[in-house]
UniProtKB/TrEMBL annotation:
This is EamA-like transporter family protein. It holds the Pfam family EamA. GO terms for cellular component: membrane. Residues 3-130, 145-285 form the EamA domain. Keywords: Membrane, Transmembrane, Transmembrane helix. The chain crosses the membrane at residues 6-23, 30-55, 61-82, 89-108, 114-132, 144-163, 169-193, 205-223, 243-263.
Amino acid sequence: MTALFALATSLLWGLADFGGGLLTRRLPALTVVVASQAIAAVVLGAIVIATGGWSEAGPQLWFAAAAGLVGPVAMLSFYKALALGPMGVVSPLGTLGVAVPVGIGLILGERPGLLQYAGIAVAVAGVVLAGGPQWRGAPVQRQTIALTLVAAFGFGTVMVLIAEASTTITGLFLALFVQRLTNVLAGGAALYASVRRGGRALPEGAGWGALWPAVPALAFVGLADVAANGTYSLAAQNGPVTVAAVLASLYPVVTALAARGVLSERLRGVQAAGAGLALVGTVLLASG
């Protein structure tokens, strides 16, 4: 079950990233983050009320709140790094966040089998190559590397925190709601501060009319991200965190394939090789 839930996580995160990337071509990145998470918070709030999730409230929700604070920082750092570029460096470096949950798992005594160790190495290599690393070209700014590493560490930290935030299904709904609510509050405060400094919440010359047509896509991005956090939590609870984290980190492969199918973007040779290695690593992890 760990492999199944973790692969579902990579699928959902990959599709959410693809949808978010398309939306940021029309709307400011911070607006996309806040709006998508706000929609997800409303839906989760209704689910929590319907399932009686409030009864699961406890100290573990601080993990969810912490994930809600770290998440927007990681996401915005990643978007900023992508803007500075080159994306061929930023994208694969962003997956280094998997080192956080894998390291925690090893520290806590998890010891994968030989096949799983091989699968981890092959899958991580595949994910990095699937990002299409840029081997030559203009030098990368130190700020870009710093922002990317901040984002990677943040993404990995969120994976660890959300796995600790609940032990039951109803508790998971409550934890995800608290995480999303914190996301909205933190992101909303950052958006307000940005507007006060002269930034824009909506495209120049466009009012709220630019936001409403994007609501279905925003809802998809927000809910896919929520579902991914949920399936990752279940994966981490049902098996080794080291395996769950690596399989969940395959989402760049999904994003690349979605871009190929929807936008007809051609995969470079190194990306195709990376996707193949990622699949081989998946098989090794699932069979170990």
